[in-house]
Amino acid sequence: MTALVLDAPGAFHLAETEPAPPGPGDARIRVHASGICGSDRELYQGNRPKGYVRYPVTPGHEWSGTVEAVGAGVPSALVGRKVVGEGFRNCQVCDRCHAGDTTLCTAGYEETGFTQPGAMADTLTLPARLLHPLSEGADLGAAALLEPAACVAAAALKANVRPGERVAVVGTGTLGMIAVQFLAAASPAELLVVGVRPDRERLSLSFGATAFRTTRDQPAARGGYDVVIETAGSASAARTSAALPRRGGRLVLTGIPAAGADGLDPTDLVVRQIEVRTVFGAPPAAWAHAVRVFDAGLLTLLPLITHELPLTDFATAIELVGSGDPKVGKVLLRPGGA
User: Fold this and answer.
1) What pTM was estimated for this model as a whole?
2) Domain encompassing residue 244
3) Is the domain of 232 the same as that of 130?
4) Strand (E) positions, the chain?
5) If you average pLDDT over every residue of the chain, what do you get?
6) Among 41, 245, 259, 285, which is most exposed with the fewest C-beta within 10 angstroms?
Protein backbone atom coordinates (compact mmCIF):
# COMPACT_ATOMS: atom_id res chain seq x y z
CA MET A 1 0.00 0.00 0.00
CA THR A 2 0.96 3.65 -0.36
CA ALA A 3 1.01 5.87 2.70
CA LEU A 4 1.97 9.50 3.16
CA VAL A 5 4.47 9.87 5.99
CA LEU A 6 5.11 13.25 7.61
CA ASP A 7 8.67 12.83 8.86
CA ALA A 8 8.85 16.24 10.52
CA PRO A 9 7.23 19.64 10.02
CA GLY A 10 7.40 20.47 6.30
CA ALA A 11 9.02 17.16 5.36
CA PHE A 12 7.09 14.19 3.98
CA HIS A 13 7.42 11.25 1.62
CA LEU A 14 5.25 8.52 0.12
CA ALA A 15 6.05 5.09 1.51
CA GLU A 16 5.27 1.75 -0.12
CA THR A 17 4.60 -1.07 2.36
CA GLU A 18 2.68 -4.32 2.62
CA PRO A 19 -0.48 -3.91 4.71
CA ALA A 20 -0.28 -6.09 7.80
CA PRO A 21 -3.15 -8.41 8.74
CA PRO A 22 -5.33 -6.79 11.41
CA GLY A 23 -4.56 -7.98 14.91
CA PRO A 24 -7.08 -9.16 17.52
CA GLY A 25 -9.89 -6.68 17.90
CA ASP A 26 -8.75 -4.63 14.89
CA ALA A 27 -10.18 -3.93 11.46
CA ARG A 28 -8.41 -2.88 8.27
CA ILE A 29 -10.18 -0.24 6.19
CA ARG A 30 -9.79 0.43 2.49
CA VAL A 31 -9.74 4.24 2.60
CA HIS A 32 -12.08 6.04 0.21
CA ALA A 33 -11.18 9.62 1.12
CA SER A 34 -9.40 11.61 3.80
CA GLY A 35 -10.28 15.22 4.60
CA ILE A 36 -7.82 17.96 5.47
CA CYS A 37 -8.57 20.46 8.22
CA GLY A 38 -6.71 23.22 10.01
CA SER A 39 -5.18 20.80 12.51
CA ASP A 40 -3.55 18.86 9.63
CA ARG A 41 -2.01 22.10 8.46
CA GLU A 42 -0.75 22.70 12.01
CA LEU A 43 0.76 19.21 11.88
CA TYR A 44 2.52 20.05 8.62
CA GLN A 45 3.77 23.43 9.84
CA GLY A 46 4.86 22.15 13.25
CA ASN A 47 2.41 24.31 15.21
CA ARG A 48 0.59 21.51 17.00
CA PRO A 49 1.21 21.60 20.78
CA LYS A 50 3.75 19.21 22.23
CA GLY A 51 2.12 16.00 23.38
CA TYR A 52 -0.53 16.16 20.64
CA VAL A 53 1.67 14.89 17.82
CA ARG A 54 4.34 12.24 17.36
CA TYR A 55 6.56 12.36 14.26
CA PRO A 56 6.93 10.51 11.97
CA VAL A 57 3.20 10.05 11.44
CA THR A 58 0.71 9.38 8.66
CA PRO A 59 -1.90 12.17 8.94
CA GLY A 60 -5.62 11.77 8.36
CA HIS A 61 -8.24 11.86 11.10
CA GLU A 62 -11.23 12.71 8.86
CA TRP A 63 -11.95 9.72 6.66
CA SER A 64 -14.39 7.22 5.20
CA GLY A 65 -13.89 3.76 3.76
CA THR A 66 -14.89 0.12 3.57
CA VAL A 67 -13.84 -2.69 5.90
CA GLU A 68 -11.69 -5.18 3.97
CA ALA A 69 -10.41 -7.43 6.77
CA VAL A 70 -10.92 -8.00 10.49
CA GLY A 71 -8.85 -9.60 13.23
CA ALA A 72 -9.75 -12.20 15.82
CA GLY A 73 -12.72 -11.35 17.97
CA VAL A 74 -14.31 -8.99 15.40
CA PRO A 75 -17.55 -10.11 13.69
CA SER A 76 -16.87 -11.15 10.09
CA ALA A 77 -20.15 -9.48 9.08
CA LEU A 78 -18.30 -6.17 9.34
CA VAL A 79 -16.27 -7.00 6.21
CA GLY A 80 -17.61 -5.07 3.24
CA ARG A 81 -19.42 -2.46 5.35
CA LYS A 82 -19.00 1.24 4.66
CA VAL A 83 -17.68 2.88 7.83
CA VAL A 84 -16.28 5.94 9.52
CA GLY A 85 -14.44 5.87 12.83
CA GLU A 86 -13.57 7.71 16.01
CA GLY A 87 -10.08 9.11 16.27
CA PHE A 88 -9.39 9.11 20.01
CA ARG A 89 -7.71 5.83 21.05
CA ASN A 90 -9.22 5.78 24.54
CA CYS A 91 -8.31 3.20 27.17
CA GLN A 92 -11.92 2.11 27.96
CA VAL A 93 -11.09 1.44 31.63
CA CYS A 94 -10.61 4.84 33.32
CA ASP A 95 -13.49 6.63 35.04
CA ARG A 96 -13.94 9.12 32.18
CA CYS A 97 -14.15 6.32 29.61
CA HIS A 98 -16.66 4.45 31.80
CA ALA A 99 -18.75 7.62 31.88
CA GLY A 100 -18.71 7.80 28.08
CA ASP A 101 -16.41 10.83 28.01
CA THR A 102 -13.74 9.05 25.97
CA THR A 103 -12.19 12.30 24.70
CA LEU A 104 -11.25 12.98 28.34
CA CYS A 105 -9.50 9.62 28.79
CA THR A 106 -7.04 9.92 31.69
CA ALA A 107 -4.61 7.42 30.17
CA GLY A 108 -3.23 10.18 27.94
CA TYR A 109 -3.79 11.53 24.46
CA GLU A 110 -3.64 9.16 21.49
CA GLU A 111 -5.43 9.96 18.22
CA THR A 112 -5.53 8.61 14.70
CA GLY A 113 -3.56 10.85 12.35
CA PHE A 114 -1.62 12.64 15.08
CA THR A 115 0.07 10.07 17.32
CA GLN A 116 -1.20 6.95 15.53
CA PRO A 117 -1.18 6.20 11.77
CA GLY A 118 -3.97 8.01 9.96
CA ALA A 119 -5.98 7.68 6.78
CA MET A 120 -3.76 9.42 4.23
CA ALA A 121 -2.96 5.98 2.92
CA ASP A 122 -4.55 3.18 0.92
CA THR A 123 -5.55 1.40 4.11
CA LEU A 124 -6.03 2.21 7.79
CA THR A 125 -5.98 -0.27 10.67
CA LEU A 126 -7.60 0.63 13.98
CA PRO A 127 -9.61 -0.98 16.82
CA ALA A 128 -12.93 -2.16 15.41
CA ARG A 129 -14.73 -0.81 18.50
CA LEU A 130 -14.11 2.70 17.13
CA LEU A 131 -16.00 2.06 13.88
CA HIS A 132 -19.47 3.37 13.04
CA PRO A 133 -21.10 1.46 10.16
CA LEU A 134 -23.02 3.46 7.58
CA SER A 135 -26.03 2.55 5.50
CA GLU A 136 -25.41 0.57 2.33
CA GLY A 137 -26.24 3.54 0.09
CA ALA A 138 -24.09 6.07 1.96
CA ASP A 139 -22.02 8.45 -0.15
CA LEU A 140 -18.46 7.85 1.03
CA GLY A 141 -17.26 11.22 -0.28
CA ALA A 142 -19.74 13.06 1.92
CA ALA A 143 -19.10 10.61 4.77
CA ALA A 144 -15.46 11.75 4.94
CA LEU A 145 -16.85 14.87 6.65
CA LEU A 146 -18.48 12.93 9.46
CA GLU A 147 -15.56 13.55 11.83
CA PRO A 148 -16.15 17.33 11.90
CA ALA A 149 -19.89 16.57 11.90
CA ALA A 150 -19.42 14.44 15.03
CA CYS A 151 -17.61 17.32 16.74
CA VAL A 152 -20.52 19.60 15.86
CA ALA A 153 -22.94 16.95 17.10
CA ALA A 154 -21.09 17.02 20.44
CA ALA A 155 -21.57 20.80 20.54
CA ALA A 156 -25.25 20.52 19.63
CA LEU A 157 -25.86 17.93 22.35
CA LYS A 158 -24.15 20.17 24.93
CA ALA A 159 -26.07 23.21 23.71
CA ASN A 160 -29.38 21.36 24.15
CA VAL A 161 -31.32 23.78 21.94
CA ARG A 162 -35.06 23.75 22.48
CA PRO A 163 -37.71 24.71 19.92
CA GLY A 164 -38.39 28.44 19.86
CA GLU A 165 -35.03 29.52 21.28
CA ARG A 166 -32.88 32.17 19.63
CA VAL A 167 -29.63 30.66 18.40
CA ALA A 168 -26.43 31.95 16.78
CA VAL A 169 -23.45 30.30 15.07
CA VAL A 170 -20.13 32.15 14.82
CA GLY A 171 -17.94 30.91 11.98
CA THR A 172 -18.76 29.97 8.40
CA GLY A 173 -16.24 27.23 7.69
CA THR A 174 -17.04 23.52 7.52
CA LEU A 175 -17.88 23.30 11.23
CA GLY A 176 -20.07 26.39 11.08
CA MET A 177 -22.07 25.19 8.07
CA ILE A 178 -22.63 21.81 9.69
CA ALA A 179 -23.63 23.49 12.96
CA VAL A 180 -26.31 25.50 11.14
CA GLN A 181 -27.88 22.25 9.96
CA PHE A 182 -27.88 20.61 13.39
CA LEU A 183 -29.36 23.70 15.03
CA ALA A 184 -31.97 24.30 12.33
CA ALA A 185 -33.30 20.80 13.03
CA ALA A 186 -34.18 21.97 16.57
CA SER A 187 -36.69 24.53 15.20
CA PRO A 188 -35.23 27.70 16.73
CA ALA A 189 -37.20 30.94 16.50
CA GLU A 190 -34.11 32.61 15.02
CA LEU A 191 -30.83 31.21 13.71
CA LEU A 192 -28.19 33.86 13.11
CA VAL A 193 -24.88 33.11 11.38
CA VAL A 194 -21.92 35.45 11.94
CA GLY A 195 -18.72 35.17 9.90
CA VAL A 196 -16.04 36.99 7.93
CA ARG A 197 -17.10 35.70 4.50
CA PRO A 198 -20.12 37.39 2.93
CA ASP A 199 -20.14 34.74 0.18
CA ARG A 200 -21.34 32.20 2.76
CA GLU A 201 -24.68 33.95 3.25
CA ARG A 202 -26.53 32.02 0.53
CA LEU A 203 -25.23 28.66 1.76
CA SER A 204 -26.07 29.52 5.38
CA LEU A 205 -29.64 30.42 4.47
CA SER A 206 -30.02 27.27 2.38
CA PHE A 207 -29.03 25.20 5.42
CA GLY A 208 -31.68 26.81 7.62
CA ALA A 209 -30.25 30.10 8.92
CA THR A 210 -32.77 32.93 9.23
CA ALA A 211 -30.24 35.77 9.29
CA PHE A 212 -26.61 36.41 8.33
CA ARG A 213 -24.12 39.06 9.46
CA THR A 214 -20.45 39.59 8.79
CA THR A 215 -18.20 40.53 11.69
CA ARG A 216 -18.00 44.04 10.26
CA ASP A 217 -21.71 44.44 10.88
CA GLN A 218 -23.30 45.03 14.26
CA PRO A 219 -25.12 41.73 14.93
CA ALA A 220 -28.78 42.22 15.76
CA ALA A 221 -29.81 42.02 19.40
CA ARG A 222 -26.40 41.68 21.04
CA GLY A 223 -26.87 39.70 24.21
CA GLY A 224 -30.23 38.39 23.06
CA TYR A 225 -29.45 34.78 22.13
CA ASP A 226 -30.26 31.73 24.21
CA VAL A 227 -27.52 29.60 22.64
CA VAL A 228 -24.33 30.52 20.77
CA ILE A 229 -21.95 28.00 19.19
CA GLU A 230 -18.48 29.22 18.19
CA THR A 231 -16.76 27.25 15.39
CA ALA A 232 -14.00 29.52 14.03
CA GLY A 233 -11.17 28.95 16.50
CA SER A 234 -9.90 32.52 16.83
CA ALA A 235 -9.75 35.02 19.67
CA SER A 236 -11.95 37.44 17.74
CA ALA A 237 -14.55 34.71 17.19
CA ALA A 238 -14.49 33.93 20.91
CA ARG A 239 -15.06 37.60 21.76
CA THR A 240 -17.91 37.87 19.26
CA SER A 241 -19.48 34.67 20.57
CA ALA A 242 -19.26 35.72 24.21
CA ALA A 243 -21.09 38.99 23.48
CA LEU A 244 -24.12 37.31 21.89
CA PRO A 245 -25.73 35.20 24.68
CA ARG A 246 -28.47 36.70 26.82
CA ARG A 247 -28.01 36.81 30.60
CA GLY A 248 -28.02 33.18 31.70
CA GLY A 249 -27.51 32.00 28.10
CA ARG A 250 -25.41 29.07 26.88
CA LEU A 251 -22.10 29.32 25.00
CA VAL A 252 -20.35 26.35 23.38
CA LEU A 253 -16.76 26.77 22.11
CA THR A 254 -15.55 24.26 19.51
CA GLY A 255 -12.61 26.08 17.91
CA ILE A 256 -9.13 26.22 19.41
CA PRO A 257 -7.44 29.67 19.18
CA ALA A 258 -3.73 30.16 19.67
CA ALA A 259 -2.48 29.59 23.20
CA GLY A 260 -2.97 32.63 25.39
CA ALA A 261 -5.43 34.29 23.02
CA ASP A 262 -7.35 37.10 24.65
CA GLY A 263 -10.86 36.06 23.82
CA LEU A 264 -13.13 35.88 26.88
CA ASP A 265 -13.65 38.12 29.88
CA PRO A 266 -14.25 35.88 32.95
CA THR A 267 -15.82 38.75 34.92
CA ASP A 268 -18.36 39.38 32.17
CA LEU A 269 -19.19 35.67 31.96
CA VAL A 270 -19.69 35.45 35.72
CA VAL A 271 -21.83 38.60 36.01
CA ARG A 272 -24.07 37.51 33.15
CA GLN A 273 -24.02 33.92 34.45
CA ILE A 274 -23.21 32.48 31.04
CA GLU A 275 -23.00 28.69 30.92
CA VAL A 276 -19.81 27.87 28.98
CA ARG A 277 -19.22 24.42 27.47
CA THR A 278 -16.34 23.28 25.28
CA VAL A 279 -15.72 20.55 22.70
CA PHE A 280 -12.42 18.82 21.87
CA GLY A 281 -13.12 15.81 19.70
CA ALA A 282 -16.29 13.75 19.78
CA PRO A 283 -17.28 10.96 22.20
CA PRO A 284 -19.19 7.87 21.00
CA ALA A 285 -22.63 9.37 21.67
CA ALA A 286 -21.87 12.34 19.42
CA TRP A 287 -20.54 10.06 16.68
CA ALA A 288 -23.66 7.91 16.86
CA HIS A 289 -25.84 11.02 16.69
CA ALA A 290 -24.00 12.38 13.64
CA VAL A 291 -24.16 9.06 11.79
CA ARG A 292 -27.89 8.67 12.49
CA VAL A 293 -28.60 12.16 11.18
CA PHE A 294 -26.42 11.52 8.10
CA ASP A 295 -27.98 8.14 7.32
CA ALA A 296 -31.44 9.67 7.68
CA GLY A 297 -30.59 12.14 4.90
CA LEU A 298 -30.86 15.13 7.24
CA LEU A 299 -27.25 16.30 6.86
CA THR A 300 -26.03 17.85 3.60
CA LEU A 301 -22.25 17.63 3.30
CA LEU A 302 -21.36 17.33 -0.40
CA PRO A 303 -21.74 21.09 -1.12
CA LEU A 304 -18.97 21.75 1.42
CA ILE A 305 -16.42 19.78 -0.65
CA THR A 306 -14.67 21.90 -3.28
CA HIS A 307 -11.54 19.92 -4.12
CA GLU A 308 -10.61 16.23 -4.43
CA LEU A 309 -6.98 15.45 -5.16
CA PRO A 310 -4.86 12.29 -5.32
CA LEU A 311 -2.70 11.47 -2.32
CA THR A 312 0.38 12.39 -4.37
CA ASP A 313 -0.86 16.02 -4.41
CA PHE A 314 -0.65 16.40 -0.63
CA ALA A 315 1.53 19.52 -0.84
CA THR A 316 -0.98 21.21 -3.16
CA ALA A 317 -3.85 20.23 -0.89
CA ILE A 318 -2.15 21.67 2.20
CA GLU A 319 -1.53 24.95 0.37
CA LEU A 320 -5.17 25.10 -0.72
CA VAL A 321 -6.36 24.69 2.87
CA GLY A 322 -4.20 27.57 4.05
CA SER A 323 -4.70 29.82 1.02
CA GLY A 324 -7.56 31.90 2.41
CA ASP A 325 -9.26 31.62 -0.99
CA PRO A 326 -13.05 31.86 -0.44
CA LYS A 327 -13.51 29.33 -3.24
CA VAL A 328 -11.74 26.66 -1.17
CA GLY A 329 -13.97 24.62 1.12
CA LYS A 330 -13.29 21.11 2.31
CA VAL A 331 -10.37 19.45 0.50
CA LEU A 332 -10.31 15.66 0.21
CA LEU A 333 -7.37 13.38 -0.63
CA ARG A 334 -8.18 10.21 -2.53
CA PRO A 335 -5.78 7.24 -2.35
CA GLY A 336 -4.92 5.94 -5.81
CA GLY A 337 -6.13 9.07 -7.62
CA ALA A 338 -8.89 11.65 -7.65
Assistant:
1) 0.95
2) 149-278
3) no
4) 2-8, 11-16, 26-36, 62-70, 82-85, 123-127, 131-133, 166-170, 190-195, 211-214, 225-230, 245-253, 275-278, 305-310, 330-334
5) 94
6) 259
